[in-house]
Amino acid sequence: MDSTPPSKSIFILSGQSNMAGRGGVHSRKWDTIIPTECEPHPSILRFSASSSWDTAVEPLHADIDVSKACGVGPGMPFATALLPHLPPGSTIGLVPCAVGGTAIKEWERGEKLYEEMVRRSKEVAGEGEIKAVLWFQGESDSLSDDAASVYKMKMEQLIRNLREDLQLPSLPFIQVALASGGEKQYFEKVREAQLGIQVPNVVCVDPMGFSLNEDNMHLTTESQIKLGKMLAQAYLDNFYVSA
């Protein structure tokens, strides 16, 4: 009987501020409230900026998105919701890469953020299986027609690039459609692009209508918990194959 524990199920968390997490952030300060769905668990690990695996604690992106106040994001509630569905003894590894205020052009191959995401992903690839990328970005591209008009093309290229650079041609992507943004017409254009991406192994979840912080841009802690559960269900429904 094989008693070898399962390897880590690794998930890349990337995009901009709503993936990095601003739940509970008010006046640029996090309220430090940690809901049950975000409490540390010995089987949920986080790959730190210094390349060590540690027990995951909020804010997951505190040493990644360093120029902003980070709070609760969707990563911990995602992992908490997913863990009971995995085989006994499983470990989830979260790899935070999101940086607030970033546009899709900053995630092109050759740009610092993209290359850092690739580097961190390659670092962990030998320690488990990269199961999916969770991607929440686009608010910065909803500020102009020029950016919104090319969003779909650039997002599809990012998916192709990352799959190629990680040598994972079928790597699942779970994208989050915008729940907030800039100018309404450009916001709608980015959402349309996100919901309309037709690339294999890419699904999109839609948190439209979820409650926002007083800045009308960032998801509240409650909304981040709902989003995390939504992402976990999307992964289970579309990509999870039980052992």
Topology, element by element:
Elements: E1 8-15, H1 17-20, E2 25-26, E3 29-30, E4 44-47, E5 53-55, H2 75-82, E6 92-96, H3 112-125, E7 128-136, H4 145-149, H5 151-165, E8 173-176, H6 184-195, E9 202-205, H7 221-238
Parallel strand pairs: 1-6, 1-7, 4-6, 7-8, 8-9
Antiparallel strand pairs: 2-3, 4-5
Distance between the termini: 15 Å
CATH top level assignment: Alpha Beta
How are the strands of the biggest sheet laid out side by side? 5-4-6-1-7-8-9
Helix/strand/pairing category: alpha/beta
- Report the CATH topology name: Rossmann fold
Largest sheet features = 7 strands, mixed
Gyration radius from CA atoms, angstroms: 17 Å
Low-confidence stretches: none
Work out the strand percent: 15-25%
Task: Write a concise keyword list for the protein shown above.
single chain, 243 residues, alpha/beta, Rossmann fold, 7-stranded mixed sheet, two-stranded antiparallel ribbon, 7 helices, 17% strand, globular
Explain how this protein is built.
The protein has 243 residues and is α/β, with parallel strands linked by helices. It has one domain (8-238): Rossmann fold. The chain has 7 helices and 9 strands, in the order E-H-E-E-E-E-H-E-H-E-H-H-E-H-E-H. The chain has helices at 17-20, 75-82, 112-125, 145-149, 151-165, 184-195, 221-238, and strands at residues 8-15, 25-26, 29-30, 44-47, 53-55, 92-96, 128-136, 173-176, 202-205. The strands form 2 sheets. The protein has a 7-stranded mixed β-sheet with strand order 5-4-6-1-7-8-9, sandwiched between helices. Strands 2-3 form a two-stranded antiparallel ribbon. The protein is globular and about 50 Å long. The protein starts with 7 loop residues before the first strand and ends in a 5-residue tail after the last helix. The model has no long low-confidence stretch (mean pLDDT 95).
